[in-house]
Amino acid sequence: MKKLILPSMITFFFITGIEVHADGHASNNGEGAFNTLMVKSKDIEKYVARLKSDQTVFKAIGTSDAGVCITRSGNNHEGEMFVWNAYPDVATAMHANTIYNPYDAPKEMKKLRKVKYGVTWRPLKSFRLDPGWERVIRVKVESEDMNAYVQMIKDLEKAIIDSGYPAFNMGVFVPIGGGAHESETLMIRAIMPTAKEFGELVDNYFKGASWGRIWEQSQMMSEVTSDTFEECEQIYKAE
Q1: What is the pTM for the complete model shown?
Q2: What is the pLDDT of residue 91?
Q3: Which of 3, 152, 184, 194 is the most exposed, fewest CB within 10 Å of its CB?
């Protein structure tokens, strides 16, 4: 049977809420949203440096927190990365898209990157805003299995934390307005502070960690469409 997730209003009625806090804390219920601008950078270091040095746009669009994620493994193309912006709710995130048009950026900015597409994301579980070395898996899940799948990710996160990895963090996000790029997938983010720490976690899995069974069950409930590693950092925080 085809596995499908539709980011429609129906989805929001049967998925529990989540709140993303700028101070790094999260609750099981609430709201939150992210906008991401997927780009192909001709010079990643210069592009990120430019974003750090001139944060006018972040202030103008009312984002609470912003940063970048650079694809380090599993790239679809050279220079693959994106800029992310955090908001308290979907309404604020969508309104921000009317304030700034990335295609009308200054020539200096256009020289550094090519815009691929933009998308708004809503978290489906509690998520701590603490960027690091992140495994990003896009999956398709049957609509009727959605609640069970999200609960399984919550259980997996707790099991890994309880096994001795307090810095571990997971997010589950549904795309809104992602076009053909993101129209039928959930995005799963598994996060550790560094690549080495993430590698140690993977080594633990292959040694037979008890939480591995939960991970394997989640894989059985979904169809993986992509699997990458990203290095993410926060570069802006509203005053």
Answers
A1: 0.86
A2: 96
A3: 194
